[in-house]
Amino acid sequence: MSEVKKTVLTIALALFAFLPSLPASAQADSTDRKVSFIKGMGAPVDTIDIQDGALQVVLCDDNTWFYIRNLANLDTTSVYSKNWIVDVIDPYNRPLAELPLRNTFILADSVSHWVCPNQTRVFSKFGYRHRRRHQGVDLPYPVGTPVKAAFDGKVRASLYYKGYGNLVIIRHANGLETFYAHLSQRNVEPGQWVHAGDIIGLGGSTGRSSGPHLHFEVRYNGFAFDPEWLADYEKGTLRKNVFVLKRTYLDPSSHYVPESIDEEEDVYGGDEQILAEEKRREAERAAMQFHTVRSGETLSHIASKYGKSLSTLRKLNPKINPDRLSIGQKIRVN
Q1: Residue 178 near residue 217, CB atoms below 8 Å
Q2: CA distance to 14, 60, 295, 326, per residue, from 49 (Å)
């Protein structure tokens, strides 16, 4: 918070205006004494509520101040008082169609900021992987390495959960939730407030994991979307302080599209554009056709059967190994 400290002179003057005037005797006596104020090292000395108690100003002994959220006030808001269940992954259970077509989220401002869980290249991206949904990004993370909270928030869940292994879920004031999975150790408990950068656990490989890494998810109302919309993990920075989430991003097959000159038009396009994109995705899924591999079949045989080239099948099935097909394996053919 030190970067947002400012001079407290205006606040001090405002407070001084409300002080009662001294008696004449005290005023006379004060002329005979010199009062000196010793500048401190920045330690907080007082707190003042502002904006109906939603925020507080912390006054410091070095004549500076900074903002903080009033956690007692924040705890009573609907973000933290509704759909708060500590032992389930999705406490919302809402149909996607009920969610608004777009939402705007403030990710960083004068009272909250971002800390990258791990500044590194994403080695496994959001989307389908081996025909199974992968609802976050995987970041290399050695066992025992401290895992930090990405934003300020309140821990909703801290538990061992199936394929996630040791999992921590943090709900943030803007309504988003972040997931930190495969931890070797969890250092926080449900109901605990944390700040961006606080250590919430240690890296590991628990649950369904092929090796040490951090599985990081971002969800809205229980629906995951590609965390790369929010940040560039290789640079460790947010892409924007304000993020517009379109409902189409909540589709399991949606993924981050690199910025372009058309990005602003894409993000702020009309509702008709969003609905049209949803219909296009639905039609595309409905038209998908898959072949189930039988004994003795090869990829060349399957390609010939459907009038496709080998290169087309490989493009439709990027993870496929043509030399190691297994009976019952599903192969997309259109």
Answers
A1: yes
A2: 15, 15, 72, 65
Has domain 290-332 been given CATH number 3.10.350.10?
yes
Please tell me whether residue 246 adopts helix, strand or coil conformation: strand
Q: Please classify residue 182 by burial: count the beta carbons closer than 10 Å to its beta carbon, then call 0-12 exposed, 13-18 middle and 19+ buried.
A: buried
Taking only the tens place, the pLDDT of each residue in 55-107 is 888 989 888 888 888 888 889 999 999 999 999 999 998 999 899 988 999 99
- CATH number for the domain formed by residue range(s) 96-283: 2.70.70.10
Going from the C-alpha of 220 to that of each of 103, 117, 170, the distances in angstroms are 10, 19, 12
Domain ranges of the chain: 2-73, 96-283, 290-332
Could you give the count of Cα atoms lying within 13 Å of 174 in the half-sphere of its Cβ? 22
User: Which of 153, 39, 138, 156 has the alpha carbon at shortest distance from 91?
Assistant: 156
pTM: 0.69
Q: Which helix (H) or strand (E) holds 186?
A: strand 185-186
Sheet holding 185-186, edge to edge: 146-148, 199-202, 185-186
68 sits in which H/E element:
strand 64-69
What is the C-alpha separation between 37 and 100, in angstroms, rounded? 54
Stretch (H or E) spanning 60: strand 55-60
CB environment 17-39: b (16+ within 10 A), e (fewer): eeeeeeeeeeeeeeeeeeeeeee
Task: Kindly report, residue by residue over 106-156, the tens digit of the pLDDT.
Answer: 999 888 889 998 899 998 999 887 777 889 999 999 999 999 999 999 999
